[in-house]
């Protein structure tokens, strides 16, 4: 009761404190969302040369982006690479997390650091390093790697593994091992206990890892820039090439579609798996 009276007295003494707190939170949200709002706003400007205030609004830039074959092909190719990289990265990352969390061995911390290192290396540095490694591998294996679909997917898998390792390892650290042990004591084999007990409890972390892996791969530019082959262009590269000769709001329209697509994916994912549990 004394604590409640103290809180009430403090609220009565500083009635503006709650208002300032809410205003500060609202300003932080506005600051974070402002770039997205501006991009969507620019996509409806009527003028090809951007200036304020606009002379009018139109949806012609969305029609132009839809008719651009480079954007369509880049979107499909990026979608294919991101889906495959996310699936492979999540599978490998889950196995790596299980090995490090369940079987303590000498050097486990070094392995964990190595798997998380792509998060620390700048993308352009990683892209050049993988490109040089592929060149040496081509000389050794006497076969093409740079510019191939498989080489690009492998590079993106290396980019997505750290997200799975980080999220799944953190989720496994919070699991109660006695639950799986109880299943084993009741006669379940190790595989059955993992599939029926542990894996369902890891579902939020795995789904979140797949979501972030897909987004990181789909939006990647630096790594893909030196690894794509002729006739194959990801959507970020198509946007960069378009910006070399054009400065109209078409890019804002393409970016707005990406924002909407990724936002819907995150909302749908959070509807079934609460991302706040693992992020």
TrEMBL record:
Pfam families: BPD_transp_1. It is a multi-pass membrane protein. GO terms for cellular component: plasma membrane. The chain crosses the membrane at residues 19-44, 75-98, 110-134, 146-165, 201-218, 250-269. Keywords: Cell inner membrane, Cell membrane, Membrane, Transmembrane, Transmembrane helix, Transport. Residues 75-269 form the ABC transmembrane type-1 domain. PROSITE patterns: ABC_TM1. It is found in: Cell inner membrane; Cell membrane. GO terms for biological process: transmembrane transport. Its main location: membrane. PANTHER family: INNER MEMBRANE ABC TRANSPORTER PERMEASE PROTEIN YDCV. Belongs to the binding-protein-dependent transport system permease family. This is ABC transporter permease. It comes from Bordetella bronchialis.
């Amino acid at each position: 009761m004394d604590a409640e009276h103290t809180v009430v007295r403090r609220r009565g003494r500083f009635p503006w404190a709650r208002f300032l707190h809410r205003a500060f939170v609202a300003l932080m949200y506005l600051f974070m969302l402002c770039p997205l709002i501006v991009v969507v706003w620019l996509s409806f400007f009527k003028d090809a040369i951007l200036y304020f205030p606009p002379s009018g609004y139109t949806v012609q830039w969305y029609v132009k982006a839809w008719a651009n074959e480079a954007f369509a092909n880049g979107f499909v190719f990026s979608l294919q690479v991101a889906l495959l990289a996310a699936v492979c990265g999540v599978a490998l990352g889950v196995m790596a997390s299980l090995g490090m969390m369940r079987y303590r061995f000498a050097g486990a911390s070094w392995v964990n650091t190595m798997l998380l290192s792509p998060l620390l290396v700048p993308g352009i540095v990683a892209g050049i390093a993988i490109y040089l490694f592929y060149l040496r591998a081509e000389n050794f294996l006497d076969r093409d790697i740079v510019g191939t679909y498989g080489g690009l997917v492998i590079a993106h898998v290396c980019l997505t593994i750290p997200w799975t390792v980080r999220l799944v390892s953190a989720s496994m650290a919070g699991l109660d091992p006695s639950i799986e042990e109880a299943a084993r004591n009741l006669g379940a084999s190790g595989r059955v206990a993992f599939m029926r007990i542990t894996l369902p409890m890891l579902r939020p972390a795995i789904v979140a890892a797949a979501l972030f892996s897909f987004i990181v791969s789909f939006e990647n530019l630096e790594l893909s820039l030196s690894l794509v082959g002729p006739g194959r262009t990801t959507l970020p590269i198509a946007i960069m090439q378009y910006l070399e000769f054009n400065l109209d709001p078409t890019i804002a329209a393409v970016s707005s579609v990406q924002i909407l697509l990724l936002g819907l994916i995150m909302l749908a994912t959070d509807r079934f798996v609460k991302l706040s549990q693992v992020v």
